[in-house]
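Page 37, continued from 36.
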């Protein structure tokens, strides 16, 4: 009997000790650690809608250089790929045949001048003789006619000499424009034909044109008040570049809508002195609509993708993250406009759903969205900021 009482007492004591141990463990367990997350209040900024178009650059002036006279190439006076100036001699043709023609015509002119002087003298003598009735009227008229013939012959020879001197001058083939010259298509010693043989090509390099087509709806809604005289600012990006590094302006707008495509042809011009733009280059043109409106701005990295949807995580009651579907708008550097889904005053997780998800309580760390170096409107003052985005 005593043995059973002792066993029961030992069991009760052990249960009491176990309960005390559990209570002590529960009291010593640390509180749950919340994930620290950077959060920020969304921004509201005045923005312009940007439109991007693809194009290929064209040179304002491009020349397929051909000789004005036929002949043999005597020398090539340029280095292929060089910058040339208007008037620089590029090819020299054999000038000796042309010089011989000039010399022959000059001799013929001297002979014609002598004949003309004789005809003038005989005409004056005929007038005096006619006054004294020493010759007939027919003879006097014949001498006057001879004088007119000698004058005409001299004029014809002088015209031939002018043409021959031009041909002699044209044996020096010069550059008609400033620009960059290509390679020589025909080399020294070859015969070239006037107006047929393409010696080389030259493109001007002080400016480049970019033609692009704007659809009628976009033009009427965003650019209807733009004219060529207003010099609407545009920026351009070449293939392989991340920045829109070149600034230009619109200098031509076509006079009608293309009825086949429903687009309007527009031209932008880019002036640059560093020879970095080449005709034929593929490029992207960006220009801003004239209308300005307020938009919610958030960091691009705050946006998550869920199948076809875009979403952000907002901070709700008790610092619990909430799932919000959004519709995104224009991109401004590392920032993005949101057209629906967020309101002014909303607080979002700025680094997106990389480490957290909806329904998760967090420890918010408030930060400010950085807008330095970002232009939300495209004006002459901040176009360089846009170019860096």
């Amino acid at each position: 009997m005593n043995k059973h009482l002792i066993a029961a007492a030992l069991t009760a004591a052990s249960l009491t000790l176990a309960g005390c141990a559990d209570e002590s463990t529960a009291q010593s367990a640390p509180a749950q650690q919340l994930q620290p997350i950077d959060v920020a209040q969304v921004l509201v900024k005045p923005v312009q809608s940007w439109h991007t178009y693809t194009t290929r650059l064209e040179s304002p002036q491009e020349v397929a250089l051909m000789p004005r006279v036929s002949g043999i190439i005597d020398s090539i006076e340029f280095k292929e790929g060089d910058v040339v100036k208007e008037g620089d001699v590029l090819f020299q043709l054999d000038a000796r045949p042309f010089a011989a023609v000039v010399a022959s015509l000059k001799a013929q002119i001297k002979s014609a001048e002598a004949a003309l002087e004789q005809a003038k003298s005989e005409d004056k003598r005929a007038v005096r003789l006619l006054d004294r009735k020493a010759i007939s009227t027919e003879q006097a008229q014949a001498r006057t006619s001879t004088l007119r013939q000698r004058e005409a012959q001299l004029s014809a020879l002088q015209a031939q000499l002018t043409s021959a001197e031009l041909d002699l001058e044209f044996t020096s083939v010069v550059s008609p424009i400033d620009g960059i010259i290509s390679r020589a298509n025909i080399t020294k010693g070859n015969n070239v034909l006037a107006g047929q043989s393409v010696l080389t090509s030259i493109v001007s390099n002080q400016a480049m044109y970019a033609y692009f087509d704007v659809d009628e709806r976009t033009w009427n809604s965003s650019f209807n008040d733009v004219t060529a005289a207003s010099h609407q600012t545009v920026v351009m990006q070449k293939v392989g570049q991340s920045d829109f590094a070149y600034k230009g302006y619109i200098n031509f707008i076509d006079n009608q809508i293309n009825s086949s495509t429903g687009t309007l042809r527009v031209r932008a011009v880019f002036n640059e002195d560093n020879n970095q733009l080449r005709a034929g280059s593929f490029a992207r043109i960006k220009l801003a609509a004239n209308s300005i409106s307020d938009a919610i701005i958030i960091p691009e990295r705050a946006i998550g993708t869920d199948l076809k949807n875009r979403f952000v995580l907002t901070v709700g009651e008790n610092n619990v993250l909430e799932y919000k579907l959004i519709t995104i708008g224009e991109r401004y550097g590392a920032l993005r406009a949101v057209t629906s889904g967020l309101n002014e005053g909303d607080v979002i997780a700025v680094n997106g759903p990389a480490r957290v998800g909806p329904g998760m309580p967090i420890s918010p760390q408030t930060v400010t969205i950085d807008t330095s170096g970002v232009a939300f409107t495209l004006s002459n003052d901040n176009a360089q900021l846009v170019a860096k985005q």
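Residues 96-131 form the longest helix (36 residues). Flag for discussion at group meeting. The mean pLDDT is 86.
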